Amino acid sequence: MTVLLSVEDAAVSYGAVEAVRGVALQVASGSVATIIGANGAGKTSLLSALGGLLPMRGRVIYDGHDITRLGTADRVAAGLALVTESRDLFGTMTVEDNLRLGAYTRTRAEAAQGIEEVFGRFPKLKERRTQLAGTLSGGERQMLATGRALMSRPSVLMLDEPSLGLAPLIVRDIFHIITELRNDGIGVLLVEQNARAALQTADHAYVMELGRFVMQGAAAEMMHDQRLVETYLGIS
Ligand code: ATP
């Protein structure tokens, strides 16, 4: 495993409000790193900044290159993709056209191949290839947003709350897909409020509180950390 994404001393502010302060993290190829924490901890702000959607201070090193000053499109072209919490699909376009939009960094032939790869990974999307994205279920929308991000062939995929609003069976499918992506060598940075599922899936975990990381370690060990379990997993 190689470290692909390395973040140093990251900070994000909204005016006088510091949403993220002094955060450092790493994501290696073929591994899942998760950031867990309560509402408002700063997880979405951090991921959005790493995706180039918000200004930030600090440094972002991707595959040995400093990409701190790159915009979103250049980050995607470099191999760093983000699926936002809102999933941002084009509701009046078909499933297939939404996927095609994710391939703007690639040739037409590569896009066609990419679509078949995504359909291989998400057979449900293939069944619904001509359906309008706005009519998909929540789980299908998450799959489409993830599939669209995969169209750019990222080596690091950042997912913001992929289980948000989904039924337990669908959540299980989503986490299964995350494990498959990891097994295919992709580095995944996963922001989740579903701490239990995130820790079960991840290799490494960071716990965020009030804009800072207050704890980090092997996800499997964190499952047995009494304070963490009581605070985030709702078991006493
Ligand atoms: P959630 O899971 O609820 O999305 P989060 O951990 O992702 O929470 P953020 O959404 O990053 O947290 O919010 C971190 C802090 O930044 C919060 O105090 C929030 O109120 C503040 N914040 C977020 N977006 C803005 C904004 N556009 N303007 C001002 N403050 C903001």
Automatic annotation (TrEMBL):
Superkingdom per UniProt: Bacteria
Signal peptide as annotated in the record: none
GO function terms (MF aspect): ATP binding; ATP hydrolysis activity; branched-chain amino acid transmembrane transporter activity
Keywords noted in UniProt: Amino-acid transport, ATP-binding, Nucleotide-binding, Transport
PROSITE patterns in UniProt: ABC_TRANSPORTER_2
Domain ABC transporter: 5-235
Record Pfam families: ABC_tran
The keyword DNA-binding is assigned to this record: no
GO BP term, pick one: L-amino acid transport
Assigned protein family: Belongs to the ABC transporter superfamily.
Protein name, as recorded: ATP-binding cassette domain-containing protein
Organism: Frigidibacter albus
